[in-house]
Write a structure and sequence with these properties.
17 strands; alpha/beta; 7-stranded parallel beta sheet; DNA polymerase, domain 1; 22 helices; single chain; Beta Polymerase, domain 2; globular; binds zinc ion
């Protein structure tokens, strides 16, 4: 449990109270407590008395203490008994806040999406004050979109499910090895379904245990070597498990990882050698003899190829390229993470907790980069608080001499095109990230002006998440990426590959162009809690999709080189 969980609890209680039509002061108390926690610089473990947090009073304190100690909340449980949980999804609809959902529940007995839809279609909803034609039209439109599961879902959603399944598979002792396959393993941005390949000597037991997984909505297929079912909370997702023995594992994994186009090219290559590839191995067409491989690497080597990372198996020119050694950035070359948040702005963990998580990963350095003052919703820091934060970082530097802590900031580029801090102030920071978090609807011209100001500033080191996209949710602001790459090259400003699977920003096609221009790329997790420092692996997969070399990725550099870069105009 971390601070975010407690904040979520308080906000959820406030929502239920709002639906219930409770006293506005009572509702506000929970929201105030949530905000107070968000603003407090201490992490959950560091707060010994919640009454010392701004905005937390006796009532909210009791609720928090119970939740922290027991992991449950009587208050929330009671509210859930009084008010149908099925009302909560209604809050996502346009024009429906807690109060209005409460009114619909009390006056019309609307309890879920179905009953709401019926009330809209029959017109009974017009009996309730404040529901006009336009509102109802908007609700119906949103309901239609809600009902359909898009054909493909964003990678970040699927990765969460994959992690849960992996956790389950790790606990089945009869499984020798397993791997996710398919488009997730190749880190495609939008994903249709999930595939796993499992190596076992005891297929029957493994199959039985797979069928005991929680949250199975429907079993589609139970064959000798395959189990398929539908899982899911928010969306239904079909998952295939291919169950094979040790001999077939590597070939199966390659086969089910794809892509189709890559597999076609591999089969052509085999055919030219009078061989045939299938999921069980490689057969010599003249002798009929079948060859098995211990690993995918051995499989590729058989065809005189080096190991091709899954993310590059797209059926482009990878077969030609991997005849030779390809100098790609590797996970173990990463020495630090240059973008992360703490409780000082909107992160869940303290600086010290982030530092320790990075030390555990064996990093040589990190940059602490909380938000700047313009971003009020994220509790951004002004000059005064940044100076205070520097004292804390200084203390931690003394305490942990084995890691280099850069004092950075993620500074907003304001909608009017100015920066959130003066040059004199920025000059004193170890690491300056500039980013756009507002004014997404501005014209391309205005957006480019803002990015130009940032690139031309001598103390800005890096442009974060350069397009502002969220995969499958929003395309970002209107940016001319090619022109941005040009500006970054002229001003010697680095660009980010944000490794958060919601963003993966910049995308590979742009990274490739940036590398051509010798622009340093920082692969950063933008972590708001310790657990997401692992997002680095996804960022590196994207980096390899663009054939980024170790020298291009600046967090393979030593800390001295990072400091030299940050001092280039000082
Ligand atoms: Zn940001
Ligand atoms: Zn950030």
């Amino acid at each position: 449990m971390n601070k975010k969980d407690v904040i979520k609890l308080l906000e959820e209680i406030a929502l239920y109270l709002e639906i219930k039509g409770e006293n506005p002061f009572r509702i506000a108390a929970y929201r105030k407590a949530a905000q107070g926690l968000e603003k407090d610089v201490r992490s959950l473990d560091e707060i010994t008395d919640f009454l010392t947090v701004d905005g937390i009073g006796k009532g909210t304190n009791d609720v928090i203490v119970e939740y922290v100690n027991t992991g449950t909340s009587t208050m929330l449980e009671q509210l859930k008994e009084e008010i149908p949980e099925t009302l909560l999804p209604l809050l996502k609809l346009p024009g429906l806040g807690g109060k209005r959902v409460g009114t619909l529940y009390k006056e019309l007995g609307i309890t879920d999406i179905e009953t709401l839809k019926k009330a809209c279609l029959t017109g009974t909803i017009y009996q309730v004050k404040g529901f006009g034609k336009k509102t109802v039209e908007n609700i119906l439109k949103a309901l239609d979109e809600m009902g359909q599961r898009p054909e493909r879902l964003p990678i970040y959603y699927m990765l969460q499910l994959v992690e849960e399944i992996k956790q389950y598979l790790r606990e089945i002792p009869e499984i020798n090895r397993f791997s996710v396959a398919g488009s997730i393993r190749r880190l495609s941005e939008m994903i249709k379904d999930i595939d796993f390949v499992i190596d076992t000597d005891d297929a029957e037991t493994v199959k039985a245990k797979l069928l005991q997984m929680e949250n199975i909505k429907e079993v589609i297929n139970q064959g000798d070597t395959k189990i398929s079912y539908v899982l899911g909370d928010e969306y239904a997702v079909s998952v295939d498990f291919l169950i094979v023995d040790e001999n077939a594992y590597a070939s199966s994994l390659h086969h089910f990882t794809g892509s189709k186009e890559h597999n076609v090219k591999m089969r052509q290559l085999a055919k030219a050698r009078k061989e045939k590839i299938n999921e069980y191995g490689v057969t010599n067409l003249e002798t009929g003899e079948r060859k098995h491989f211990e690993t995918e690497e051995a499989f590729f080597n058989h065809f005189h190829l080096n190991f091709i990372p899954p993310e590059l198996r797209e059926g482009k020119d990878e077969l030609e390229r991997f005849k030779e050694h390809v100098n790609l950035v590797r996970d173990e070359q990463i020495k630090g993470d240059l973008h992360m948040h703490t409780t000082w702005s909107d992160g869940a963990h303290s600086i010290e907790e982030m530092v320790n998580a990075a030390r555990e990963k064996g990093y040589q350095y990190i940059a602490i980069t909380d938000h700047s003052k313009f971003l009020r919703v994220a509790n951004g820091l002004d000059e005064k608080r940044l100076l205070k934060q520097r004292e804390e970082i200084e203390r931690l530097r003394q305490k942990y001499p084995d890691i280099h802590i850069l004092h950075g900031v993620e500074m907003d580029i304001l909608p009017n095109g100015t920066l959130d801090f003066s040059d004199d102030f920025l000059k004193e920071m170890d690491w300056v990230i500039a980013a756009i978090h507002s004014g997404f609807n501005q014209s391309r011209e205005d957006i480019m002006k803002r990015l130009k100001t940032a690139c031309e500033n001598p103390y800005v080191d890096l442009i974060a998440h350069p397009t502002g996209r969220l995969i499958g949710r929003r395309s970002g602001y209107d940016v001319d990426v090619e022109a941005l790459i040009e500006m970054a090259s002229e001003t010697n400003t680095a660009l980010e590959l944000n490794a958060n699977p919601m963003r993966l920003d910049l995308a590979p096609e742009w990274l490739d162009k940036a590398q051509e221009k010798n622009i340093p790329i920082a692969v950063n997790t933008d972590s708001h809690q310790t657990s997401t420092l692992t997002f680095m692996q996804y960022g590196l997969q994207v980096a390899r999709k663009a054939y980024l070399q170790p020298e291009t990725v600046m967090n393979t550099w030593d800390v001295e080189a990072i400091i030299r870069f940050s001092n280039r105009n000082k």
